[in-house]
Amino acid sequence: MPTSSLSSSSDSGGDQSPDELRSPLLSNANKAVGETESEKLCIDDMLQKYCGEFGPYQMKHFVLTSLAWALEAFHTMVMIFADREPAWRCLDGAAGSGCDARAKTVCGLKPGSWEWIGGLGSSTVAEWGLVCEEKYKVGLAQALFFGGCMIGAGVYGHLSDSFLGRKGSLTVVCILNTIFGCLTALSPNYWTYVLFRLLTGFSTGGVGLCAFVLATEPVGPTKRGAAGMSTFYFFSTGIAILSCVAYIFPQWRELYIASSIPSLLFLLIVLPFVSESPRWYLVRGRILEAMKLMRTIAKSNKNHLPEGVVLTLDEEASNDTTTTNEDDQTYKELLESKEAISGSLIDVIKSPVTRIRLFLAVAINFLCSVVYYGLSLNVVNLETNLYINVLLNAVAEMPAFTITAILLDKYGRKPLAIGTLWFSGVFCFVGSLVGNVGMWKVVRMVCGILGIFGMAGTYNLLFIYTMELFPTVVRNAALGCATQAAQMGAILAPFVVVLGGGLPFSVFAVCGVVGGMFAFYLPETLNKPLYDTMAGMEDKEGACLSV
């Protein structure tokens, strides 16, 4: 009996056998074997504590996924070269026909007295005569492309949050871009061309948002800002590469094929090495697959994820994070697939926390897009070499990305958004005050460059900011809605530019200043977790507001 053993031990002066000394240790060891201690963590905590926030795995995943941004640049900016109005010249022996080589336009010239330099196949304008009273058709094709982008952003934003997932949606849009891009090159007439551009826009609208979310979701919270800001380097690089490709393929049909083939190469060579987002697995209830991917991340980053650590949603992680189980069965139950959690824009609108965020994100993205695309069109309208001009515009945006990325984690998202919007607005206001004669032309040009410099930083920032404002279950849907608003701004921008004079700069200035005022009402998201569910966000944000 225990009492007699204890008394005999005391009487013998503590003289115990080795077996008796080892028995407590064996008891504790058996207890440890019989019980499995599990630690429940959300993804951000698991990345910070065990897997690593931005190691070799995230670097490879980020670079491969962000290459899709170059594809979006190809399909979007190809219209600059394919729909350009080429130079023209009077035909030899046509001097008596009234052809004036000093004329700024071919309108009014007698047919047959002039020709397009480069031939009819140099652009859609030359092939289908989209000049003079038909010139509006060039703008119509551009507007319908962005209209397709607006629709596609909403559709693929929802699909990537639901059953298709981030990688699945990116796969679908790459397939469609390849098909529609090549079919565009075979267009027999203008209206067929417009139809395929609309369809290309529909698929292109999902490329950027799917690639952005997929690239940044596996990144830890303290590294996510800089990583997200770096995605736009790939977009600008794509524009720069496209200008070189367009120079090599001056015929518009060849150019559409050359700009569509990279989507097929990305689909076949890059996507097989890209993993689905662990956050999407988690909210879809596929816990085992999410845990398998998190272990892969930890192993690739030369870290160790203990067996007892369990991935869970943020609303569940807010409860006790450690549980002790008397057998392995309970631990296994934690890893079993749970019911998928889904959400939609209706849920975003119903929630008082996310409703105002969605409104502000939509308004700011719309205003930013009007300024960004409007100023871009103003710069392109300069009478300079088109290929060099597009190349320089792409390169000029990169310093804005660098500066914004450096300051992002130091000053936060909100102050930087306000600052870049007002920076652009101020220089646009100055540009609206100066004339367009003499030396003032240079001043207005500099104001335009500085305006697009600031707005490029804002445009870059808004993706990471918008992504962090919403939980995983509705993140792509909300980001898609904001992208739709940006496409609406892109559609409106050409109509603002045709106002001429200082009016476009005045409109851009108002958009920049008002956008900065809206940004005042957004919450700061610096070093905040990426929430998984609406309930998790409402609980945490509501607690912060009550404090």
Give short descriptive properties of this protein.
547 residues; Growth Hormone, Chain: A; three-stranded mixed beta sheet; 24 helices; 5 strands; globular; disordered N terminus
List the helices and strands and how they pair.
Blueprint: H1 2-11, H2 18-34, E1 36-41, H3 43-51, H4 56-66, H5 68-82, E2 88-90, E3 114-116, H6 124-128, H7 136-161, H8 165-184, H9 190-204, H10 207-216, H11 221-248, H12 252-270, H13 278-283, H14 287-300, E4 309-311, H15 314-317, E5 322-325, H16 328-335, H17 345-350, H18 352-380, H19 386-411, H20 413-433, H21 440-468, H22 472-497, H23 503-519, H24 534-546
Parallel strand pairs: 1-4
Antiparallel strand pairs: 1-5, 2-3
Helix pairs in contact: 3-14, 4-10, 5-10, 5-11, 5-12, 7-8, 7-9, 7-22, 8-9, 8-10, 8-12, 11-19, 11-21, 18-21, 18-22, 18-23, 19-20, 19-21, 20-21, 20-23, 21-22
Tell me about this structure.
The chain has 547 residues and is mainly alpha-helical. The chain folds into two domains: 38-86 and 122-314, Growth Hormone, Chain: A (Up-down Bundle), CATH 1.20.1250.20; 349-546, Growth Hormone, Chain: A, CATH 1.20.1250. It is 70% helix and 3% strand. The protein has 24 helices and five strands. The chain has helices spanning 2-11, 18-34, 43-51, 56-66, 68-82, 124-128, 136-161, 165-184, 190-204, 207-216, 221-248, 252-270, 278-283, 287-300, 314-317, 328-335, 345-350, 352-380, 386-411, 413-433, 440-468, 472-497, 503-519, 534-546; strands spanning 36-41, 88-90, 114-116, 309-311, 322-325. A three-stranded mixed sheet has the order 4-1-5. The protein has a two-stranded antiparallel ribbon with strand order 2-3. Helix 5 packs parallel to helix 11 (221-248), helix 11 packs across helix 21 and helix 18 runs parallel beside helix 22. The protein is globular. The chain starts with a helix and ends with a helix. Residues 61-527 form the Major facilitator superfamily (MFS) profile domain. One of its GO terms (molecular function) is transmembrane transporter activity. Residues 1-16 have a biased composition (Low complexity). Residues 1-23 are annotated as: Disordered. It is found in: Membrane.
